[in-house]
Write a structure and sequence with these properties.
With 614 residues, the protein is mainly β. It contains 5 helices and 36 strands.
């Protein structure tokens, strides 16, 4: 994986320790001081996301959030289908299985058929910041928030004026990237638009990747309390899958289009706030499964696999203060999940009759009501409790409780404890697609027990978490049928700290230790990162080291674990007020390792470019 110490985030935490970095929205849906929340929420700032000059947010998250790991296989591009990377693993809970939810402005983003997030679509150029809630968030966000949520908060800057940013770069293996973003704000409205293009040959034959897309957001203040906004994004990427080293593939190509659109009306008064929104995330997939290059009898595919899906919903919530120091949040969610998978002839384009579908069903519906209550009992004590009732059109009712407590023995520290339930409804693939499908599947269920301590001093912030996860009803394929038989039992410790030594030097570090009773792929038993940054005059340089130990690339009878030490560097030189020249080097020691079995990672790679801020 990639590793650079994004140490300017530490500077921001020191300078704005309460005013900015302590305010989050993911844990409660409205702006809340993190010191009053029992949940563990990590914030990755805009500065940390853009400092790396990476077009995708996932590398920055994997480095900055303890317990979070994102699998990758090359310089650029995660892909889908066979051999895909971009698997999000949070405390050993898999986003690839749909157990970790990615959201944009609080709205779910996942494939309607397979239920998993698609990593290539989450880009830096439209992200203001990213909040990662570690642990179940199903009370507020329902199914797929079983192991946690990653909430991408889009541009919300209302500072009056215009701003134009252009970032261009190129580097190893024919890799190029470019993005442009323009913002215009006045006293009542704001407009943000942006576009992105990137491509890479990557370090193996038949591993090319190309992506382009655009984003737009319009916001208008009806008055000082009410706001209406809408956004839209469309991303297209083309990817080739080379196969494992010992099983090379030919013609394994993918053409993917993903998008999302949202419209919302929200208000904020002194004692009440709320939002009503409609949203949709959608996609079209065309995949050639290819054929083995090392088998002379293998032949090209005569058909394409195609799918289209959509997740459309309505979300409404109201948060209000009844007693001083308390908040009640009442909400309702409705989702319509649609998906259709089929094959077409490569020669004629006609739809082919296949045995993939075991049911004619192509859609499901969910409706839910939830209540979250948070109350300051004293200046040093906060309690929180929540409940959700969720009804799925096939699996039926699910009750989801949550409770937590925060004790603040001093102004600079807080002790937190939570007990929370998470769940995941079976996907359309698991219920209806392919021979293992089973319409009698029940939701997966998980309980999380956690205690945490966080403290801030002048120039220093640190936190430590201890958690225990127990889950059952995990969907597995047994004797060619999907059944609720699997279990999860994970426990671990997470540590994060930052130290702003002086105006020039800073250090940021995080570590996670994970013990899994039942081993899962792409979940390291230990992940640690330490970054040292130096900033003076026009220079800003960061050197980061990431250690991976006990990373499972295969499980079962042929279980295999990888260990790797990855050294990365990022440097920026402000040539003028508006022009930054940057250089990024990854895996500088040329470490040989794999994140996915059969897919060796590239050795040392370099990218360089320029960034305009006008």
């Amino acid at each position: 994986m990639l590793a650079v110490g994004l140490c300017q985030q530490a500077v921001a935490e020191v300078r704005d320790s309460v005013e900015i970095s302590e305010i989050v929205v993911t844990g409660t849906r409205q702006k809340t001081d993190i010191r009053h929340l029992p949940m563990t929420v990590s914030v990755v700032s805009k500065q940390a996301l853009t400092q790396r000059n990476q077009p995708n947010i996932m590398p920055a998250l994997s480095e900055n959030v303890p317990g979070l790991f994102v699998s990758t296989r090359g310089m650029m591009g995660y892909g889908v289908s066979n051999g895909a990377a971009g698997g999000i693993m949070l405390r050993g809970i898999s986003g690839g299985a749909g157990q970790v939810m990615v959201m944009i402005d609080g709205h779910p983003q996942y494939n309607g058929i397979y239920g998993h997030p698609i990593a290539d679509t989450y880009q830096s150029h439209y992200a203001q910041l990213v909040e990662v809630l570690r642990g179940p968030a199903s009370v507020l966000y329902g199914s797929n928030a079983m192991g946690g949520v990653i909430n991408i908060v889009t541009e919300q800057n209302r500072e009056t004026g215009h701003a134009l940013k252009i970032n261009l770069g190129s580097g190893s293996y024919g890799t190029i990237q470019g993005d442009i973003a323009y913002k215009m704000n006045n006293t009542k409205s704001s407009v943000s638009v942006g576009g992105q293009y990137m491509r890479s040959d990557n370090h193996r034959p038949r591993m090319g990747f190309e992506q382009y897309g655009g984003f737009g957001k319009l916001s208008y203040d009806l008055n000082q309390n009410w706001n209406i906004w809408a956004d839209v994004n469309v991303t297209r990427y083309n990817s080739s899958y080379p196969g494992a080293i010992n099983a090379p593939m030919l013609e394994a190509d993918q053409w993917i289009t993903r998008g999302f659109a949202t419209m919302a009306v929200e208000h904020e008064y002194e004692k009440t706030s709320g939002r009503v929104s409609v949203y949709s995330t959608y996609g079209w997939h065309k995949i050639n499964d290819g054929y083995r290059a090392d088998q002379p009898t293998a032949a090209p595919q005569s058909r394409y696999f195609r799918s289209k899906d959509a997740l459309a919903g309505v979300s409404a919530y109201e948060s209000f203060e009844v007693i001083d120091g308390g908040r009640f949040t009442l909400g309702v969610d409705y989702q319509h999940i649609y998906g259709n998978a089929y094959y077409t002839s490569r020669e004629t384009g006609e739809v082919l009759e296949t045995q993939n579908k075991q049911s004619g069903r192509e859609e499901n519906n969910e409706i839910a009501v939830y209540l979250d209550v948070r109350q300051d009992i004293a200046s040093w004590l906060t309690i929180d409790a929540g409940i959700r009732w969720d009804k799925h059109s096939v699996t039926g009712d699910e009750w989801v409780p949550q409770a937590g407590i925060v004790v603040r023995p001093s102004e600079t520290g807080e002790l937190k404890g939570t007990v929370s339930k998470g769940f995941r409804n079976p996907t359309m693939r698991e219920m209806y697609l392919y021979p293992p499908s089973n319409e009698d599947l029940k939701p997966e269920k998980m309980m999380n027990y956690e205690i945490a301590w966080r403290q801030r001093f002048t120039g220093i912030t640190y936190g430590i978490n201890i958690f225990l996860i127990k889950a059952d009803n995990i969907i597995q394929t047994v004797e060619r049928k999907n059944v609720n038989t699997g279990e999860i039992e994970n426990k671990g410790i997470e540590l994060e700290a930052s130290w702003h030594i002086n105006n020039n030097w800073r250090i940021i570090t995080n570590h996670s230790v994970l013990n899994m009773k039942y081993h899962v792929l792409a979940a390291p038993e230990y992940k640690g990162m330490i970054g040292v940054g130096y900033m003076k005059d026009r220079w800003d340089v960061d050197l980061g080291v990431q250690q991976l130990s006990g990373l499972f690339t295969q499980t079962g009878a042929k279980e295999h674990k990888e260990n790797a030490t990855i050294v990365n560097m990022n440097a920026g030189f402000n040539a003028t007020k508006n022009l930054l020249i940057w250089l990024r080097g990854e895996n500088l020691l040329g470490e040989k390792y794999e994140v996915i079995a059969g897919y060796p990672m590239p050795k040392a790679t370099f990218m360089g470019g320029i960034r305009f801020n006008l």
